[in-house]
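queue> pop job 88
queue> type: inverse folding (structure -> sequence)
queue> payload:
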C-alpha cells in the first residue's frame, strides 16, 4: 500500500473523529490576553485549561523583559547549535540558577522538554542497560523508552512492590550484561495529578543499584516549600539522580532543563542529540526565563495564591460528591462515568452554555466508561471563579446522571451535532 493511502486508511484514535471537529473540540482557538477569562468562538469563557500555574504569562515584568530582550537581540541570536556558535553567558547563568533553585549542583538547558527527555534517555542508557518505568509516565518518556535498544520493564502506577519485582528481573540481566538500571517516574502525573512515590522508590536504593530519573514538569514551581519541585516536597532531592523540568508549565514559557551531578552533565551535553543537532534556545527566551525564575523566588505568594485556589476548588468538588481521584497537586481531574459521545456533549455544554472552558478526555485516553474533565487552577484565578465553576459542575453532574448527554435515540439531546 502507498504510505499516504495507509495514513488515510488508519488515521489513529483521534484522527478518526476529526470529521466532527471545527476547532471546537480539538485545536480550539482561545483568543485575547492569557488570563482566566479569554475569548472562544466570540464569547468570554472562564478558562481552566492553561498551564500557567503561577500566573507569569502576562505578568508586567515578564512582558517587559520579553519585549526588551526581543527588541535588543531578536529571536535569532545566538545563531547556531549551542555546542558550535549558540552559547552565551546568560545560558550558563540560567542553568546555574535553576540548579540552585531545585537543590542540585549543576544544570543543563534543553530547547524543548519533549525532545530533551527523549535525548536524555537515549544518552544515558545503552543496549546492555535496563529501563524500569511507571506505567502512567508521559508520552515523552514512553517514546524515549521505545528508542531503547535494551530491555525495559514497566510497573503498575506507583506499585512499589511490583517495582521491586521488576528491579529483580533487571538485576539478573545487568549481572550478565554488565549494564546498569535506570528507573523513570514523574514527580506529578499530569492527568491524575497524583505524585510519584518518590520515597518508596528511593527506599529501594538500599537494596538495588539503580539511577533515578524524575520528570517533574508539573511539580517544578508548584510543589515543595519553596517551589523547588516534588523531590523537595518529599525531602529526597539528593536521591534523585536526574531531575528534569520544563518551562512550559510554571514558567509559562518554552524550553526545559536537566539538573544533576556536574560530571554527568558534562558528558550529556556532548551527547544529547536534541541539543547538539538543534539551534540553541534564543537569548530572548533565556532572558525571559531568568526574569520568570527571579519572580518565582522573590514572590512566594504566587505559589500560595495558587494553592488557595487549588484547595478551595478541590474541597468544593469533593463536598458535592464528585470524584477527583488521588490528586496531590494543582492538577484537578473530575472523574465521571460516560462514553466518548457523552464527553463531547458535556464539553460542548460547558463551553457553549456555561462559558466554562476546560478539557475532557474519554476512551481510548482513559478506560472505557470513564470521562475525565481536567481542571488546571492558576495563581491568577479567584475564589469567585471557583464558586462559579462549582455551581456549574453541580448541574453537569445532575445532567450526566439524568442521561442528558446520551446519543439521540437513547435519551436526551444531541448537542454534538448542533
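queue> result:
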Amino acid at each position: 500500500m502507498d504510505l499516504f493511502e495507509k495514513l488515510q486508511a488508519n488515521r489513529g484514535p483521534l484522527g478518526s473523529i476529526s470529521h466532527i471537529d471545527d476547532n471546537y473540540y480539538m485545536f480550539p482557538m482561545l483568543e485575547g490576553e492569557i488570563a482566566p477569562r479569554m475569548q472562544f468562538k466570540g464569547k468570554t469563557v472562564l478558562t481552566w485549561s492553561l498551564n500557567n500555574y503561577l500566573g507569569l504569562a502576562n505578568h508586567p515584568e515578564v512582558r517587559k523583559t520579553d519585549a526588551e530582550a526581543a527588541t535588543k537581540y531578536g529571536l535569532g541570536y545566538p545563531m547556531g547549535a549551542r555546542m558550535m556558535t549558540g552559547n552565551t553567558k546568560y545560558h550558563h547563568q540560567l542553568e546555574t540558577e535553576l540548579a540552585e533553585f531545585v537543590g542540585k549542583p549543576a544544570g543543563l538547558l534543553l530547547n524543548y522538554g519533549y525532545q530533551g527527555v527523549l535525548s536524555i534517555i537515549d544518552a544515558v542508557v545503552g543496549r546492555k542497560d535496563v529501563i524500569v518505568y511507571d506505567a502512567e509516565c508521559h508520552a515523552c518518556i514512553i517514546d524515549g523508552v521505545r528508542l531503547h535498544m535494551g530491555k525495559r520493564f514497566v510497573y503498575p502506577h506507583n506499585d512499589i512492590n511490583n517495582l521491586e519485582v521488576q528491579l529483580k528481573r533487571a538485576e539478573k540481566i545487568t549481572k550478565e550484561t554488565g549494564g546498569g538500571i535506570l528507573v523513570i517516574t514523574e514527580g506529578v502525573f499530569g492527568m491524575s495529578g497524583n505524585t510519584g512515590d518518590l520515597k518508596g522508590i528511593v527506599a529501594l536504593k538500599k537494596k538495588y543499584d539503580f539511577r533515578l530519573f524524575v520528570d517533574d514538569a508539573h511539580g517544578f514551581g508548584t510543589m515543595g516549600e519553596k517551589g523547588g519541585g516534588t523531590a523537595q516536597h518529599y525531602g529526597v532531592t539528593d536521591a534523585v539522580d536526574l531531575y528534569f523540568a520544563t518551562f512550559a508549565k510554571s514558567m509559562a514559557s518554552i524550553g526545559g532543563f536537566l539538573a544533576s551531578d556536574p560530571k554527568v552533565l558534562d558528558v550529556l551535553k556532548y551527547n544529547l542529540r536534541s541539543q547538539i543537532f538543534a539551534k540553541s534556545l534564543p537569548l530572548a527566551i533565556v532572558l525571559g526565563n531568568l526574569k520568570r525564575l527571579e519572580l518565582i523566588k522573590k514572590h512566594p505568594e504566587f505559589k500560595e495564591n495558587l494553592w488557595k485556589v487549588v484547595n478551595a476548588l478541590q474541597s468544593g468538588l469533593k463536598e458535592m460528591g464528585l470524584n477527583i481521584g488521588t490528586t496531590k497537586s494543582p492538577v484537578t481531574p473530575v472523574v465521571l462515568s460516560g462514553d466518548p459521545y457523552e464527553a463531547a456533549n458535556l464539553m460542548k455544554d460547558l463551553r457553549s452554555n456555561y462559558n466554562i472552558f476546560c478539557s475532557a478526555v474519554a476512551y481510548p485516553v482513559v478506560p472505557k466508561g470513564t470521562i475525565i474533565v481536567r481542571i488546571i487552577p492558576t495563581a491568577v484565578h479567584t475564589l469567585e471563579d471557583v464558586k462559579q465553576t462549582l455551581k456549574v459542575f453541580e448541574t453537569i453532574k445532575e445532567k450526566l446522571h439524568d442521561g442528558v448527554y446520551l446519543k439521540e435515540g437513547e435519551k436526551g439531546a444531541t448537542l454534538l451535532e448542533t
